[in-house]
Amino acid sequence: MDIRTRIVTPPKSFKTVGSGKAVLGAPGECFCRIENEAARTPLSKQGAKKIEDTLYSLLDAAPEGKKVVIKLKREKAPAGIKHPDQGYKISVRSREITLTGFGSLGLYYACVTFCQLLRADETGVSLPSLDISDYPDIETRGHLLECRYGTNKMELPDWKEVVLDMVEKKENTLVVALYGCWSIQYDGQVSEYVYYPFKKYPKLKVPVVTR
Questions:
Q1: Assigned domain for 8 exists
Q2: How would DSSP label each residue in 126-189?
Q3: Is 112 domain-assigned?
């Protein structure tokens, strides 16, 4: 199986390097550790935590091994790439894996991509030696949620799941249309609904007409 198909969205450049591989762990044992050399921004900490949680879920062991080091770092972007603050590169070798962001968001996207590559089988978790580089063509990517039905049924955990799914796709913008509508507009019925609960204004909490 071509492991590049695990990455959402496909990176600008993906190439394997030789026949070596990095063995990150076996069931119940993790052979690697994480070194966050980037400025300890919230995003770099979240990226390191995402890798830690992913490895733990796959191996049932914390990333505290000595054989392979996973380095998180920041450096200046090469000339000529679009939106460099969201760009990154990944290098996987047998003893060292380097995730380099050209900005704090780029480093986080490197962590997202790295976690998407990881899979466990009966022997554990490993990756071939490879080089990846990526950056977005469009700076702002996301969704406008404007819907008469459905969003009024969503609780906070549902919205969090939407955001987490967007992160996995490296989407960075979510616009939510907040409406309070009182009109006969659809189906010949009075459409009374508020997409978002205004707790400070209880008088705006009207009955919701749904299918």
A1: yes
A2: EEEEEEEEE--SSS--EEEE--SSSGGG--HHHHHHHHHHHHHTT--EEEE---EEEEE-STTS
A3: yes
Domain extent for 167: 142-204
In the numeric block, which tokens belong to residue 80?
A: 């000529």
| 152-170 pLDDT, tens digit each | 677 889 989 999 999 999 9
- What confidence category does residue 143 fall into, taking pLDDT thresholds of 50, 70 and 90? very high
Among 138, 86, 130, residue whose Cα is nearest residue 112: 86
Question: Within this chain, do residues 78 and 169 fall inside the same structural domain, yes or no?
Answer: no
The pTM of the full predicted model, rounded to 2 decimals, is 0.86
Residue 211 domain-assigned? no
- Read off φ and ψ for residue 101, nearest 5 degrees: -105, 145
Residue 64 CB contacts under 8 Å (≥ 6 apart), including other chains = 30, 33
